[in-house]
DNA sequence: ACGATATGAATGAATG
DNA sequence: CATTCATTCATATCGT
């Protein structure tokens, strides 16, 4: 059964803006007419799969800017994506999970989602990036997406940092590696004119 | 072309009285009289009436957690319903109301049911379903849907007490010296100002 | 039968 | 992190 819970799945959308892929990556269910000419990101099935992998298998719930970058970089192979997309995705996913639990359970209060904590490197069997072999040996058996050796642990509470504070440690990190005209983050610099926070 | 807005609502008086099988076995949804329990929830007239009562008379627009549970519990007496149904109903109702009002900003500026907020301290009238008293049964005293708290005038306690720059990079107990939050994309306010509407 | 409309459901984006 | 807004999809029902 289970004849539902599987609705629209518009794949990526490159309506003349940026065509970076579409080489068989998704198109798995490209039967439904997807007129996603919107400005909003439409995750591809691969991207979703990876995200869920990270979420469930790695326990990633609130990735740091560092991780977000990596994740988005990896996911970019399967379609257009930006850091904020990843950020929002995790936020939403987590929020909805909680909300769902909150709205559904009334009799059973204590039944948390069965999520196992990542054992630092238990994800040896990571198959997050099918079709994409990380050049970095990866003998350790760790995903390229996540941090090698220290991701997946405690959820660093810094979500707000992205928007509110810029507590960046100014690490002269030689990011680079991107030969794309998109820089690291397409997010550009959204200079906000509002800086009021209920504190 | 006159967009007559017909408020057609299938009054499938919960043929099951209390619960419709919903067993995916029968797919006889061809008849109107028959429960077309396809996949999605079909509110009964009673449920809709109560929901609207709450919406208009009580100014309930976005019930949260507890309220949703109470409401769904009450409405469950009139048919199968889940918390998320109530949640979505209010969300959609509010959204559509707004959308409608927004769209008809020139054609016909007739007041669209100006929802009035409960003048604070007036929700004593918890009788949501006037005309028939919802059998309070005997146990679950959830009939107090009408006065599910004081919604309307900032009753929702926003506990937005969080530490902004609390990026505790704890957990990195591995060999890693310390992860430096290299880059942070600012997700604060994407002042895109771009909201094209195409339809 | 088909198109339009109505509405439940889902989710990206954003705010507080 | 919780809550909310905006869009979009999916399906049902009605009108023609």
Largest interface: A-B, 54 and 45 residues
Class by alpha and beta content of chain A: mainly alpha
Please work out how many helical segments of chain A DSSP would assign.
Answer: 4
**Helix content range of the residues of chain A, please?**
25-40%
Highest CATH level, the class of the domain at 45-103 in chain A:
Mainly Alpha
Write a compact overview of the structure shown.
Chains A, B: Residues 118-128 have a biased composition (Polar residues). The structure is a homodimer of 199-residue chains. Chain A has 199 residues and is mainly alpha-helical.
Characterise the protein shown here:
2 copies of one chain form a homodimer. Chain A has helices at residues 45-57, 65-75, 83-104, 159-163. Chain A is mostly helical. The first copy, chain A, has a domain at 45-103: Orthogonal Bundle (Arc Repressor Mutant, subunit A). In chain A, α2 (65-75) packs across α3 (83-104). Chains A and B meet through α2, α3 and α4 of A and α2 and α3 of B. Chain B binds a DNA duplex (16 and 16 nucleotides) through α3.
List keywords for this structure.
homodimer, homeobox (chains A, B), DNA binding (chains A, B), mainly alpha, DNA-binding, disordered C terminus, Arc Repressor Mutant, subunit A
